[in-house]
Amino acid sequence: MANSMYEYVKAFEQPDVLLPNTWIVVRIDGRGFHKFSAKYAFEKPNDRRALDLMNAAAKAVLADLPDIVIAYGISDEYSFVFHRSCALFERRSSKLITTIVSTFTAHFVHQWSNFFPDQPLSVPLPSFDGRAVLYPTVQNLRDYMSWRQVDCHINNLYNTTFWALIQQGGVDAKEAEKELAGSLAADKNEILFSRFKVNYNNEPEIYKKGSIVLRDYELVEPGTASETLDEDSAKTVEQLVLSKTHEERDRKRRAKARVTVLHVDIIKDEFWERRPWLLS
Ligand code: ATP
Ligand code: ATP
Ligand code: MG
Ligand code: MG
Ligand code: MG
Ligand code: MG
Questions:
Q1: Which of 54, 123, 168, 210 lies most in the core, judged by the most C-beta atoms within 10 Å?
Q2: Is the CB of 151 under 6 A from ligand 1?
Q3: Using a 6 Å cutoff on CB, does residue 200 contact ligand 1?
Q4: Does any domain span residue 176?
Q5: 277's torsion region: left (phi>0), alpha (psi -120 to 50) or beta?
């Protein structure tokens, strides 16, 4: 590219490279989805079509970007986790966030009619915001994922009870809110069971646990996970060459693996122990 007198403007661009060797979480969230869900008459408290569409868009994002290790979605939000060794876009924050947001939004719009065949999209069109947060340790990252799943549980128990009071109990939103103010989980379970014959435990897992998107590999039986070398500094040259070959092989395997959606507990150790490649 030829130099011009205008080139100097390039120097105004701020560097935004994310700290190396840290887990990158990009969380996106639907803009004004309270209104959006009313416009398209989402079923309350959970519209299954909308969740399936969110999951389809997230699966497409993982298929497009092999650097993503795992993603977790609830309501109108999705968290995408990049491995701490990720070097995509030289770890430039704005590039990572905007690529996720636009790829997700494009797939969300593209697949809309598969999930809402009778309701064509019209302006204002759905859009998403995004942010990147860094987590330095595996424990911090797991605590982040646990935080989102606990949020899913708390919100879903509240919403399920709130809408039961309105839809089956015949009260208005104000009264339902008043009735639930200060209530504990046990109180909500009790209202659901004694007044509406709903056993919360039997509610669909997708509503209680949210959605986990990852690549499908063979599971490791509990207690058989092999030791992995994780400090480059402790490796010989031969081991480094070998680990580069492994990295290449892993990258190809990742690109080929089928992307699937699960609705399971990610707070307890078992999920992570059976999939040691996720956090290694
Ligand atoms: P903001 O732009 O600040 O994110 P918002 O209106 O999107 O505002 P959120 O806190 O993100 O607010 O909440 C999303 C809202 O979208 C929920 O409160 C719920 O009303 C609605 N919603 C999202 N997904 C579903 C779904 N699958 N079923 C029913 N309602 C949904
Ligand atoms: P990156 O992902 O790094 O942006 P890129 O392939 O998009 O890679 P750019 O530097 O953004 O590279 O250049 C965009 C390229 O897209 C152009 O070089 C050109 O080949 C092509 N292109 C974009 N718009 C047009 C157009 N209207 N007509 C023809 N070619 C186009
Ligand atoms: Mg928000
Ligand atoms: Mg939102
Ligand atoms: Mg939200
Ligand atoms: Mg380009």
A1: 210
A2: no
A3: no
A4: no
A5: alpha
Which pLDDT tens digit goes with each residue over 172-212? 999 999 999 999 999 999 999 999 999 999 999 999 999 99
Residue 127 annotated in ligand binding: no
Question: Is 107 inside any structural domain?
Answer: yes
DSSP letter (8 states) at residue 44: S
32 annotated ligand binder: yes
Residues in the 5 Å CB sphere of ion ligand 4:
29-30, 33, 76
Q: What is the CATH number of the domain that holds 101?
A: 3.30.70.3000
Q: Which ligand is nearest to the CA of 95?
A: 2
What span, in angstroms and rounded, lies between the C-alpha atoms of 219 and 192? 37
pLDDT at 141 over 50: yes
Q: Convert the pLDDT of each residue in 263-279 to its tens digit.
A: 999 999 999 999 999 99
What tens digit of pLDDT does each residue of 215-247 get? 988 788 876 654 444 444 555 666 666 667 777
Q: Which of 29, 33, 163, 167 to mutate to test the pocket of ligand 1 (most atoms within 8 A of CB)?
A: 33
For the whole model, what pTM was predicted? 0.91
Q: Please indicate, yes or no, if residue 79 is contained in any of the structural domains.
A: yes
Structural domain including 238 reads 15-149+211-223+231-273
> pLDDT tens across 12-60, in order?
999 999 999 999 999 999 999 999 999 999 999 999 999 999 999 999 9
Question: Which has the closest alpha carbon to 78: 25, 36, 127, 124?
Answer: 25
Q: Given ligand 1 and candidates 34, 158, 160, which is best to mutate, with the most ligand atoms within 8 Å of its CB?
A: 34
**Is any atom of ligand 1 closer than 6 Å to the C-beta of 32?**
yes
> Residue 169: inside a domain, yes or no?
no
Q: Does the annotation list 31 as a binding residue?
A: yes
CA separation for the pair 48, 93 (Å, rounded): 32
**ipTM (interface pTM):** 0.95
Amino acid, single-letter form, for residue 33: F
Burial (CB count within 10 angstroms: exposed 0-12, middle 13-18, buried 19+), residue 145: buried
Enter the tokens of residue 180. 């639930």
C-beta of 42 in contact with ligand 1 (< 6 A):
yes
